[in-house]
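At this stage, I wrote out one protein, both as residues and as discrete backbone shape codes, and that material follows here.
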Amino acid sequence: MPRPMVALAGIVTALFIPFISYAQQADAPVYKDGDWWRIKLEVARPTGVSVAGPQLGGFPEYRVQINSGKATVLGIRGAESKELDAPAIVALVLGKSGWRGELLRFPLHVGLTWTDRFQFQPPGAQARWEEGRYEVQGWEKINTPRGEFDSFKIGMQMTAPTGPKGKGTAVRTSIYYYAPAGKAIVSFTGEGDAPATTSTLVDFNVK
């Protein structure tokens, strides 16, 4: 290839790569009454910890629905369902601040980073303020029981207290995927010494 063509190709590539990174951008979703999402939730607790706390656990599936502009939660086990005050479940599905900080920040695009502070309470210790660090790492397809979604891959890290009375520290990493078509986090995997959390979207209906 002649040198002028090589130089031109390099310029085009340099201009095109940032365009690709920002081509997929998602603005904040607008929720409508009647929108709903159903997730399957698994919580693997550390040895000797029988309850993960009131935030997560108690039901294998949850349904989050928008009613009168507010997100409500039902815990589901077989034919049983129970309305719950569970802001952590809302955060896990819609990315609201609270449970692990601001899981979503709009407009989303690949390369976006941010931080947020939130309260974290390890088993057997008092609640304390921690900082989460978030990065939109890519734009990928992800398979769920509800189908395949084009999604933003987001990584979150925090330094969490561990050990007796929370005096030790360990880095906890979470990877999750936000699908604009579903207006929700469709997959979440969190690992570390605290309960490991896995959430998967199994069904939804949005307007």
